[in-house]
């Protein structure tokens, strides 16, 4: 029996197996930020346990960092304390930190790949559910809880049950205007938010093979939204080219050696998955969500379904939508382009190409939040900043921002926000805020029109 990509990476990292029980898995890279690490550091301190491998940990400040005036002291007391704690903990334990103001600072799942920290065949963890992003490189990457953060600090290992395997295949040609965000929103809408529970998902088929690394990261980022532990895409020439030459990437002869190994990280032809799904690319259209979980999505051309279910009704009441309603022409006052799902340079290029020469609608507050200082620099160098500013968009400083509203970037109660983030739960973007998930293209078009439009008509 052949092995899946997931099997190959997992099996290579098993340190020990408990008889008829879980396995001890070695972790190559541990990413930390200011929100889920302080308790874990305190636990080790109280028990007088040293950090096992500080050289395998990278820290950044991202979740509750302000996105305006980052050079000034942080106003919010809780945020300020968490950031100070992270700084002190990293200093005490000799851990590399890219704090506020550092040239490499950014959202943990944006800055790690762009610095070449993320590499194929690795095991990676972080106290953050969207760690699945790094699976785009053919890495096993998943989010962990605070007690597990402490476990990795103490041992560089985790005690885990091996998840089951799932494969989602998409073949064919995507229509004009369909972005990777639409592909993953479509998959989740078709399969539901629990379809991946207990599984690690591999994405296969020409649609994923033809995606850029940015696109693959968007897809893998949202694997958690269908309940999967993580998502993976087999590394290929696109992956190797992306990693090559980055700050922490292997260099010269070592890089060539690594690539030779990375080329073996693909599912064998005779490997068996526990569950499989396949879709046709031609069936996918630009997507929007209408409810309070990422599975409540429809094509921009469709109407809200007629379902009779208590949670469905509750969701529509919160969103102030009705069954059978179309979202086209719905007035929108807030647009957010950012988050670890869609805040990479490619996302801003897509938005800028639509916005160029146009003006933002007067009723719209349009926030653009790059995923890292390096992305912010590229936006400036490529002239995108000028395009956005001429169009009336507000370009902010890097951070998680209005994705989860842990800083001042909150959507007011009752307002709709077309957002490129990953979650539309009640109150996710601020108390009483109503989130509509979409691609950077739909978000940019909404900001220009002041309402949701059927983008397919503009592109043909």
TrEMBL record:
UniProt-listed InterPro entries: 3-IsopropMal_deHydase_lsu, Acnase/IPM_dHydase_lsu_aba_1/3, Acoase/IPM_deHydtase_lsu_aba, Aconitase_4Fe-4S_BS, Aconitase_4Fe-4S_dom, IPM_dehydratase_rel_enz, IPMI_cat
Oligomer and partners: Heterodimer of LeuC and LeuD.
Gene for this chain: leuC
A Gene Ontology biological process term: L-leucine biosynthetic process
Keywords: 4Fe-4S, Amino-acid biosynthesis, Branched-chain amino acid biosynthesis, Iron, Iron-sulfur, Leucine biosynthesis, Lyase, Metal-binding
HAMAP family: LeuC_type1
Cofactor comment: Binds 1 [4Fe-4S] cluster per subunit.
Organism: Tenacibaculum aiptasiae
Domain Aconitase/3-isopropylmalate dehydratase large subunit alpha/beta/alpha: 7-450
EC number in record: 4.2.1.33
Protein family (similarity comment): Belongs to the aconitase/IPM isomerase family. LeuC type 1 subfamily.
Lineage: Bacteria, Pseudomonadati, Bacteroidota, Flavobacteriia, Flavobacteriales
Designated name of the protein: 3-isopropylmalate dehydratase large subunit
